[in-house]
Write a structure and sequence with these properties.
Bound molecules: 5-O-phosphono-beta-D-ribofuranosylamine
Strand order of the largest sheet: 1-8-7-6-5-2-3-4
Number of domains: 1
Strand content: 15-25%
Radius of gyration: 17 Å
CATH architecture: 3-Layer(aba) Sandwich
Largest sheet: 8 strands, mixed
Number of strands: 8
Number of helices: 6
Structural class: alpha/beta
CATH class: Alpha Beta
Length: 228
């Protein structure tokens, strides 16, 4: 597998598929047709992946626009970023919904009202149900901070550190009913360095998440446009 080093961060990593700017001849092939794609994003926390998606759209690296952010934690970092970036944001607090299905029904209604084509779970810390998955078949993308199928579930970075692996990473994948198990779209691997702690390894992994998530969205859109 070819190694790829981004001069902007100088962090060693391996990513597959390669980012399109490495493949000049193919670069235009990543643009979804017809565009621009309307994205819905779901976030629970800091929202750095949400902002990476917005920036990828605004910088022209992803032919899409973020039409709506949904958060489940009032005042979370993602909501604050949406205000700063001028992206519509709705709060669907899971504490106000008696079941996962009812929360997901509310999410589907919001995304359908916003006419989104594809939904990205960018740090959504809730298990989703067939209600949401079925509403966006093959168009619900998640980002997870491990090289799946290793370290599914909560605290994947802590699991990787506890296991003593020397390579960690992140995976963008389609969402299936089994948690962190849907079809893999893009992965990036990073080294675990001597002296790494949870925070330093998380930072290194997230730098790659911000790179692969827009690519995973583009790939998903491209595959939707392909004949069966
Ligand atoms: C990311 O590490 C993602 O992989 C995981 O939750 C984290 C969200 O970070 N699912 P952020 O809110 O995008 O900064």
């Amino acid at each position: 597998m070819p190694a790829f080093a981004d001069p902007s961060d100088q962090e060693p990593c391996v990513q597959w598929p390669l980012p399109p700017d490495c493949l000049e001849a193919q670069a235009t092939a990543w643009a979804p047709e017809p565009g621009p794609l309307r994205l819905g994003v779901m976030a629970s926390g800091a929202g750095s992946n949400f902002e990476a998606l917005v920036q990828a759209c605004r910088q022209g690296n992803l032919q899409a626009e973020v039409a709506l952010l949904v958060v489940n934690n009032s005042g979370c970092g993602a909501q604050q970023r949406a205000e700063r970036l001028g992206i519509p944001c709705q709060l669907h607090d899971h504490r106000h919904h008696p079941s996962r299905e009812q929360l997901d029904r509310a999410l589907v209604a919001s995304f359908q009202a916003a006419a989104v084509d594809l939904v990205v779970m960018a740090g959504w810390m809730r298990v989703v149900t067939p209600t949401l998955i079925g509403a966006f078949p093959d168009r619900l993308v998640n980002i997870h901070p491990s090289l799946l199928p290793s370290f599914r579930g909560l605290d994947a970075v802590g699991q990787a550190l506890a296991a003593g692996v020397t390579l960690a990473g992140c995976t963008a994948h389609l969402v299936s009913e089994e948690v962190d198990a849907g079809r893999i779209l893009v992965q990036a691997a990073v080294p675990v360095l001597a002296g790494d702690d949870h925070a330093s390894l998380t930072r290194r992994i997230q730098m790659q998440e911000h790179r692969i998530l827009p690519l995973a969205v583009a790939l998903t859109a491209q595959q939707l446009g392909e004949p069966d």
